[in-house]
Amino acid sequence: MSKPKNIVLGVSGSIAAHKAIDLASLLAKAGCEVDVVLTRDAQQFVKPLPFQTLTNRPVITSLYDEEETGVAHVRAADRADLLLVAPATANTLAKLALGLADDALGCVALALRPEAKLLVAPAMNGKMWRHPATEANVATLVGRGAEIIGPDDGMLSCGYDGIGRLWPVDGIAAHALKLLGVESADD
Questions:
Q1: Residues 6+ apart with CB under 8 A from 167
Q2: Staple partner for 10: which of 38, 55, 93, 105, CB 3.0–4.6 Å?
Q3: Burial of 102 by CB count in 10 Å (0-12 exposed, 13-18 middle, 19+ buried)?
Q4: Could you tell me the strand order of the sheet in which 6-11 lies?
Q5: Does the pLDDT of residue 187 top 50, yes or no?
Q6: What is the full DSSP assignment across the chain?
Q7: CA–CA distance from 163 to each of 91, 119, 154, 156, 159 (Å)?
Q8: Third-level CATH fold of 6-180
Q9: From residue 143, how far is each of 13, 52, 82, 112, 136 by CA, in Å?
Q10: So where are the chain's domains?
Q11: Average pLDDT in the 94-118 region?
Q12: What is the pTM for the complete model shown?
């Protein structure tokens, strides 16, 4: 039997953060080990407990979280086959593109093993998504080998109708599992 794939699920501070709970559940049900990293802003929308319950793993909320074997964010990066950032705000995209490491998610991204993959699912206001700075940050990430899924069109929490919604979580999960060569729980 092969070793389960490990996914680090980075959740940033978007209203869509609550959808990451279902995403973590889908990935865990598919047999993946899921390490969740919640940014400080994500914790304004969701709490660690649902993620911890669904993944049976501790949730990383700070650079200062520790495990028995060392610093939690470094260990998560060492284990990761995939870093999945969902939802990814404009701020998180910028931080990833610039290589900023001022929180646990940024440090995980920089400490990833070279063979680990990066999948990013943006969620933000459509004007923010189409801003030249965001477009440049996305191009930088894609140029480094990251894959971007979404965003989707529809009614946004800010009241606008248009692009910016988080891609449906079942589609994100399916794409993540495909990248890892894992059959989904539905297969």
A1: 121, 149, 150, 151, 152
A2: 105
A3: exposed
A4: 33-38, 6-11, 82-88, 117-122, 147-148
A5: no
A6: -PPPPEEEEEE-SSGGGGHHHHHHHHHHHTT-EEEEEE-TTGGGT--HHHHHHHHTSPPB-STT-EETTEEHHHHHHHH-SEEEEEEE-HHHHHHHHHT--SSHHHHHHHH--TT-EEEEEE---HHHHTSHHHHHHHHHHHHTT-EE--PEEEE-TTS-EEEEEPPPHHHHHHHHHHHHT---TT-
A7: 17, 19, 6, 8, 12
A8: Rossmann fold (3.40.50)
A9: 25, 33, 17, 17, 10
A10: 6-180
A11: 96
A12: 0.94
pLDDT of residue 152: 84
Annotated catalytic residues are 158
| CA triple 145-146-152, angle to 5 deg | 140
Q: How far apart are CA 93 and CA 88, in angstroms?
A: 6
Could you read off the pLDDT of 113-135 as tens digits, one per residue?
999 999 999 999 989 999 999 99
Peptide bond before 151: cis, by omega within 30 degrees of 0? yes
Please tell me whether the peptide bond between 87 and the residue prior to it is cis, using omega within 30 degrees of 0: yes
Provide φ and ψ at 154, rounded to 5°. Answer: 155, -170
